[in-house]
């Protein structure tokens, strides 16, 4: 049974395909069309998924999308109508630019340039948060677990929680539009002068520089209620009265302003994009982060009481807040966490597949998504052709020599491009499309930014560490294979790995096991053999663009920037 | 919003009224999930016109429960939705003399006399819930007409499919 799952018309459009319950492919559209967080329809991602499975669209049994217009429809209508006195203005001006409306069958048919009647698949709509919940629980190793999906909005819901048991997921609670922690985070991110879709991670990185001296104000902006519920003070927001305007004419989505003038009255002028970052703004970021954590733990305490499970599955865009995630084990009764690697909307493409396979089609669970390497891979022949065409000097190395040579270069302070195997699904480079440097050298952060990344200087870089050595370096040891947990670096190790230790002594680690990524594990092991440190600095292989996908993308990035060496499959490419 | 249980009483002819006619509410076999949208639609229109809702005694508790859920936290002005426990003849008379009928396709099939009455038919197109309007030009009340068309359009746009390009202001 072949099932295609799609996330479309939200940021991070993506497709995933499963065969008899096994994940064959999952990938974001942005990697192909090179437009960050691309919304719209994931045409190229769908094509890749079909190709990876060796099938055509006629072989698909089910196709689903992580959006169900009929879900909570009456609430959407009631909400719209109760806030708009003149229907004419709603229809006339708000939806005038809405563009073409099509159904999924027609859309897929257009994307693949085939007649709609060639599909034999059944088409499905899966409610947004149910797809999120499926994307974490149904691919986790847990037979029974609490589930939390938390994001901006999807199908009128911002937060949904429940209990997963076997192939069933029972919804135990939800928070409706306009109350949303994702929306609060985005609004504050905009206020702090970071207007782009996906900039929330910057604020998470900024927060440790500040003190949460505005926590009381944020407690007024979002209040908690019994039953794990929370509520926004809507005076601070525009989205409930004017809608959240999202456009994606050029591929990348842009989101309209969400915070209201009351935010400015409370906190002073909003920071201009690129303007100076002073302690005032850092304190706002710290306060926001602290309040997010308080509210999340409030929900999770209730969820634990409801389910009695010590296991938690996490998804939704807010689950990218790895600082929050890392503290869950310290501040709630949960003892094990599984987070979908593509916790944001891209991951709903996977969720749709398993919702349809396990829940809808009642097939038993048989798959655990224990890594995110589900994108395109390239044979050495393809790589060699690309390298030859580039004219760059190159050498083919054995696996052993490859990791040893790369480890030596890293230990010598060089910037190494590391392109291996299947591309990662989700926003994190996890050792297959990574740039790797020496974490012992504090100056590497600035060197990386100056030569390649050009990121804001306050943003931390992340460590990859051998799974069996975590205890030596971090205060917590729960596996973090998808780089979705931030733990404190042990006090006596911080000076040893300064380039990956944030200002508050934390690190957003990736735990690397040989079972899921042997070549990357060997690289870190060889670095450890040279230096006695089983940690490397891992950042995504890109330069203000989506993570590289093809060998050509990698070579382009290598040539554009001042990377020292590129390990492309079995090839070492130099300048 | 006011609601009242009218028993067998008929609306006085002089007071314009509309009818929400859902055959399943008289047959007693009620699937609550199917009722939310039509009840919401009628609740919104009840700002402009009082509605009568023929319902069997067995379906009444479900109907009341759903209205409670819809009304929770909402404070729109409403001229009311009156439950009417009535027989088939009575219902037919109501339909004939009503200003507007909100119904389903089985409702239209049961009452051919609705042919010429302004009506909003709740229906499905694939997975999407839609509203089809008929004879709306016969509505003299321009405000009601505007509201009816607007609500129906909003439902059809929201439920009808996916925005493929450009700009989507009402992103939930």
Question: How does the SSE layout of this entry go?
Answer:
The complex is a heterodimer of chains A (575) and B (172).
Chain A lengths: L1 E6 L6 E6 L2 E7 L1 H4 L9 H11 L8 E4 L7 H11 L3 H8 L6 E2 L1 H9 L9 E4 L2 H10 L6 E11 L2 E9 L2 E9 L4 H11 L8 H7 L8 H7 E4 L3 E4 L6 H4 L3 E2 L6 E2 L5 H7 L11 H29 L3 E5 L6 H10 L4 E4 L8 H13 L19 H11 L3 E3 L2 H13 L4 E4 L13 E5 L6 H10 L8 E5 L3 H4 L11 E4 L17 E7 L5 H14 L3 E6 L10 H10 L4 E4 L2 E3 L2
Parallel strand pairs in A: 1-4, 4-6, 7-14, 14-15, 17-23, 19-21
Antiparallel strand pairs in A: 1-2, 2-3, 7-8, 8-9, 10-11, 12-13, 16-24, 17-18, 18-22, 19-22, 20-21, 23-24
Helix pairs in contact in A: 6-14, 7-12, 9-12, 12-13, 16-19
Chain B lengths: L2 E3 L11 E5 L1 H5 L8 H10 L4 E5 L5 H12 L9 E4 L3 H10 L2 E5 H6 L8 E7 L2 E7 L7 H18 L2 E2 L3 E2 L4
Parallel strand pairs in B: 1-4, 2-3, 2-5, 3-4, 5-6
Antiparallel strand pairs in B: 6-7
Question: How would you explain this protein's 3D organization?
Answer:
The complex is a heterodimer of chains A (575) and B (172). Chain A is α/β, with parallel strands linked by helices. Chain A folds into 3 domains: 2-129, 2-Layer Sandwich (Nucleotidyltransferase, domain 5), CATH 3.30.420; 142-338, ATPase, nucleotide binding domain (Nucleotidyltransferase, domain 5); 380-573, Carbamoyltransferase, C-terminal domain (DHBP synthase, Alpha-Beta Complex). Mean pLDDT of chain A is 93; it is low at 85-101. Chain B is α/β, with parallel strands linked by helices and 172 residues long. Chain B has one domain (3-159): Rossmann fold (3-Layer(aba) Sandwich). Chain B has 6 helices and 9 strands. Chain B has a 7-stranded mixed β-sheet with strand order 1-4-3-2-5-6-7, with helices on both faces. Chain B is globular, with a radius of gyration of 16 Å. Mean pLDDT of chain B is 81; it is low at 1-13 and 161-172.
